[in-house]
Structure formats: C-alpha cells, structure tokens
Amino acid sequence: MAAPVDTTTVFLPDTLKGKVAFVTGGGSGICKGIAEALLKHGAKVVIASRSLDRVTKAAEEMAKSTGGECFAVSADVRKPEDVEKAVAQAVEKFGGIDILVNGAAGNFLVPAENMSYNAFRTVIEIDLIGTFNVSKACFPHLKKSKGTILNISATLHYNGTPLQSHASSAKAGVDTLTKVFALEWGPYGIRVNSIAPGPISETAGIERLLPKEYAKGYIRAVPLQRLGSIRDIEHMAVFLASPSGNWISGSNFVVDGGSWLTGNSFQYPDSIERMRKMAKL
Ligand code: NAP
Ligand code: COA
Questions:
Q1: Per its record, what are the GO molecular function terms (predicted)?
Q2: Domain 12-279 falls in which CATH fold?
C-alpha cells in the first residue's frame, strides 16, 4: 500500500522564522522534503549536493512553492575543501547557520562477497565521513547560534541488513557521531539528534533497495501496514529543529511505522535469496 497523500500542517508557519538551515542532499528525495518543510516554517535554507544543476533547480522550485529563500551550493561531502567552501558561501549568503541536516548518502544492493573494496569505501565516505566533515565545518557557526544538527540515519544496522553491509556500517557510525557530538557540543548549547526513516515511498532509496516484487511481502512486516511518506519524516525534522526539541539531544528517532521491531529477519534466510533474485544480483 502506498503512503497516503498527507497535507496535514502541524506547526505554526513561523515556527522557524529567523533560522538558517544547511541541508546536504537537499536537492532530492527525503532531504528535499525536509528542506521544503523548513522553508514552509520560516527558515532560510541552503541545499548542497554534488550536482549544482540538481540543487539549483530544486532551490528555484522550492522558493516558488513556499515563498521562502532557498540557496543552492555544490559540494561533495567527501571533500573537506568543498564542504568548507559551501559552508562559507552559506554563511555569506544568510549570515550564519542554525540548523544542519546531514542527509547526503549513497546506497545500492550488493552481496558482500561481490562488493568491491572501493564500493564499500565509497558509501562509508559519503554517509559517515561526509557527516563528520559537514558537522565539523558547520561547528563554529552552530556554536555561535546555539544551533542543532539532525543526522539522517536508518534502521539498517539494528539487526544488520543483508546486501547493504556498507550502508548498515555507515549508519551505525552516524548514530555514534550523533551521541559523541551531543556529548562534546552540548555544553555549547548545540543539540544533536538523528532521524531513522524506514522505507519511504517515491525516493531513490526505495527504488534502489526494495525491488517492487519484494515490497509486497515487506509491507506485511510493517506494523502500520504501509510504506512511509516523505511528509512523515518532514514532521519529525521540524519538531526537532524547533523549540519543541529544546531539551532533546543525543537521541535517535525511528520513523518507520514500527518496522524496526520486525526488522529484516522475517523469512530469513529465504528472504535474502528472494531479494537477490528480484534485484538480479
Ligand atoms: P536521494 O534522493 O538519492 O538523496 C541522496 C542525496 O545525496 C542526493 O540528493 C545526492 O545528490 C546527495 N549526495 C550523494 N552523494 C553525495 C556526495 N558525495 N556529496 C554531496 N551530496 C551527495 O535519497 P533518499 O532516498 O531521499 O535518501 C535521503 C536520506 O535518507 C539518506 O541519508 C538515506 O540514507 C536516508 N534514508 C532513506 C530511506 C528511504 O527509504 N529512501 C530510508 C532510510 C534512510 P547529488 O547526486 O547531486 O550529489
Ligand atoms: N553495485 C555494485 N557496485 C557498485 C554499484 C552497484 N549498484 N554502484 C557503484 N558501485 C561501485 C562501483 O563499481 C565503484 O567501485 P569500483 O571502483 O571498484 O568499480 C564504487 O562503487 C564507486 O562507484 P562510483 O560510481 O565511482 O561512485 P560515485 O562516487 O560516482 O557514486 C554512488 C556514488 C555509487 C553511491 C552512487 O550510487 C550515487 O551517487 N548515489 C547517490 C544516490 C543514492 O544512492 N541514493 C540512495 C540513498 S539511500
């Protein structure tokens, strides 16, 4: 069952007025949704990814749809020099950074025995090292603003997800960074949390990771009996970025319809074989 169209507005439109957000991966999918939600609630938003074309188009589109100010910058989160430059551009444009969303990520299905050394390293570099790089570059600005970080994690590593050894390991590291940053930077007034989405319909993640045939069986193992929507994740991001989250730090919020409770263990080990067949691996 697809996620229902959800037009609910939960927060006041000026909830994030005066705030500036820096969103990596904000040109597509879940993080574009988060960027748009931050704009709708009054924040100015900078979106960053490798493709300047993608973020520029997304920024224009979202500025139009929300009436907010959205600025696009290009950066590969694996490259500290790119990241430093993008953060400097953001600060020059909007005067500071209050909210950092670390959403840039890469993932694809591949059995560990067939995964190249470089494939494993690539995903670790984007998801985990990228999260470190961008957080470190934004730190002086977040310290000044007593700002907040939202890391976009996953539930892959709770049980370990077959065919995603790279991303499972990377997101485990991301959750660790959430805790360590919360400990180290809490005394400066910086709150650090993560959101762990379950499978979200109409995203690159779901297209790459959940073959259509396999999805039917998967949904039966989601207690709420549906995939998530981008909107489901946006609400959590606005909640955590707003004063509603003022005493929340070092926490991870699972938004997955309860599916982490059934996890990837359903029908193990046949599920791995079926997934491999359906994904033609
Ligand atoms: P997506 O649309 O593919 O978003 C990933 C974004 O990351 C893209 O905009 C991409 O833009 C950017 N990116 C990739 N490599 C980068 C790099 N080296 N430097 C800078 N930016 C880079 O995927 P999504 O499915 O919405 O996923 C968004 C986030 O949610 C990810 O953190 C993912 O792990 C997490 N998540 C997704 C799901 C799901 O069901 N979709 C479930 C759990 C967690 P460029 O190509 O322009 O760089
Ligand atoms: N299966 C197996 N290996 C794969 C693969 C796949 N589907 N896709 C890439 N790889 C391997 C490549 O072969 C390469 O290894 P090699 O040098 O040993 O051959 C390595 O991974 C790096 O690939 P490359 O295409 O050079 O990396 P990139 O930096 O250009 O792109 C990716 C990064 C691979 C993560 C790319 O899929 C991407 O840009 N993803 C962003 C979108 C995304 O993944 N969204 C979902 C988020 S949940």
A1: 2,4-dienoyl-CoA reductase (NADPH) activity
A2: Rossmann fold (3.40.50)
Gap between the Cα atoms of 76 and 126, Å rounded: 8
Number of neighbouring beta carbons within 10 Å of residue 236: 20
Q: How many angstroms separate the Cα of 131 from the Cα of each of 43, 80, 93, 123, 211?
A: 22, 11, 22, 12, 28
The 10s digit of each residue's pLDDT in 209-254 is 998 888 888 899 899 999 999 999 999 999 999 999 999 999 999 9
Average pLDDT estimate for 25-53: 98
Domain segments of the chain as ranges: 12-279
31 lines ligand 1 (CB under 6 A): yes
| Ligand 1 contact via 103 beta carbon (within 6 Å) | yes
Distance 107 CA to ligand 2 centre (A): 7
Test site for ligand 2: of 32, 78, 108, 128, most ligand atoms within 8 A of the Cβ: 108
24 lines ligand 2 (CB under 6 A): no
Contact (Cβ atoms closer than 8 angstroms) between residue 134 and residue 77: yes
pLDDT value at residue 212 = 85
